[in-house]
């Protein structure tokens, strides 16, 4: 049976579980458990620290994992990246005290840099012919300069708020990450079929994200104009109404430009506009 390793607690836990929910996999979300089984899909969920996920996937303890690309890159285990998942976005950056002048990566020559990502940092420094001391710290890297442990840090940044509140400024964005689905690449035929099903459902969840279903009443003579405003997946659905000369038009629109579309539709006389959430789109 397919086994997926996800973070037991932390930033990726909730969204990993939400993703399983979105693709219709029911999981007993008891975090006291180490291993649980989906009730309606051939899948076991193994809860782990994110640091350990690349390793358990690479050695086959789990066939799949959800983890930040940063951990995959840092740990260097042999795993396949199946797909990016669109959450947990962040970058790993070099940051220095904000009062320091910065004029390029040679700034770091001979400096001490605190980080939990020594391997990614080492590669970056080598590529730029910089020799620096890497101080490996596992938590609260951002306090290292103020504590006198290092001159600079190399750490995860998302909003940048943590850097600012520690008097630091981001000077090099080195590695961009998001949560990814990884695989051991050693799946049985049954497991491969389950993975295909997961990917199919993920794709449908991805397509339906940010989409709204819209329906409205229109005079028949403005239908052509309405279709130009609302290009649907194939073409919009048009149904006759009991009132003569009127019809109902149904379509799917991007939530991003919903209000602009609504205004244009009202201008051509659309009435009774109804906007609904889209749960799934299966192409
Ligand atoms: O216990 P476990 O080992 O499982 O968890 P962890 O503490 O190692 O990791 P966790 O839960 O903090 O993060 C898991 C993954 O989330 C990381 O490996 C990244 O892939 C991703 N991620 C996304 C982040 C952030 N955004 C993030 N902002 N991980 C950490 N941060 C930290 C950042 O270092 C900073 O200290 O959050 C702080 C706030 O960031 P700002 O820039 O928004 O202020
Ligand atoms: Zn961790």
Short description:
The chain is α/β, with parallel strands linked by helices and 283 residues long. The protein contains eight helices and 15 strands. It folds into three domains: 2-87 and 178-207, 3-Layer(aba) Sandwich (D-Maltodextrin-Binding Protein, domain 2); 90-177, D-Maltodextrin-Binding Protein, domain 2; 211-277, Alpha-Beta Plaits, CATH 3.30.70.
How would you sum up this structure, described in words?
The protein has helices at residues 13-22, 53-58, 69-75, 118-127, 161-165, 189-208, 223-229, 258-267; strands at 2-7, 35-37, 43-48, 64-68, 80-84, 90-97, 112-115, 133-136, 152-157, 168-177, 179-183, 211-219, 237-240, 246-254, 271-277. The protein is of the alpha/beta class and 283 residues long. The strands form three sheets. Strands 2-3-1-4-11-5 form a six-stranded mixed sheet. It has three domains: 2-87 and 178-207, Periplasmic binding protein-like II (D-Maltodextrin-Binding Protein, domain 2), CATH 3.40.190; 90-177, D-Maltodextrin-Binding Protein, domain 2; 211-277, Alpha-Beta Plaits (2-Layer Sandwich). The chain is globular and about 80 Å long. It starts with a strand and ends in a 6-residue tail after the last strand. The protein has eight helices and 15 strands. Bound molecules: phosphoribosyl ATP and zinc ion. The site of phosphoribosyl ATP (PRT) has 22 residues, from helix 3, strand 9 and helix 5.
């Amino acid at each position: 049976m397919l086994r997926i390793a996800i973070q037991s607690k932390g930033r990726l836990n909730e969204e990993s579980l939400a993703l399983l929910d979105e693709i219709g996999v029911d999981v007993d979300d008891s975090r006291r458990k180490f291993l649980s089984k989906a009730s309606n899909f051939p899948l076991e969920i193994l809860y782990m620290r994110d640091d350990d996920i690349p390793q358990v996937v690479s050695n086959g303890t789990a066939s799949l994992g959800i983890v930040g690309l940063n951990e995959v890159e840092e740990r260097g285990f042999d795993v396949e990246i199946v797909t990016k998942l669109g959450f947990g976005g962040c970058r790993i950056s070099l940051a220095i005290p904000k009062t320091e002048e910065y004029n390029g990566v040679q700034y770091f020559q001979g400096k001490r840099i605190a980080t939990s990502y020594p391997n990614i940092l080492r590669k970056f420094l080598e590529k730029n012919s910089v020799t620096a001391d890497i101080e490996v710290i596992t938590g609260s890297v951002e306090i290292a300069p103020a504590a006198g442990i290092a001159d600079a840090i190399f750490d995860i940044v998302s909003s940048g708020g943590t850097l600012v509140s520690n008097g630091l400024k981001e000077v090099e964005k080195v590695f961009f990450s998001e949560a990814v689905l990884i695989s051991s690449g050693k799946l049985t035929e049954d497991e491969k079929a389950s993975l295909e099903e997961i990917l199919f459902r993920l794709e449908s969840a991805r397509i339906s994200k940010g989409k709204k279903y819209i329906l409205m009443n229109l005079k028949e003579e403005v239908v052509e104009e309405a279709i130009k405003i609302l290009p649907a997946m194939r073409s919009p659905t048009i149904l006759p109404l009991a009132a003569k000369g009127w019809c109902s038009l149904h379509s799917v629109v991007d939530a991003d430009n919903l209000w602009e579309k609504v205004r244009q539709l009202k201008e051509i006389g659309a009435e009774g506009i109804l906007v609904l959430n889209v749960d799934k789109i299966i192409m």
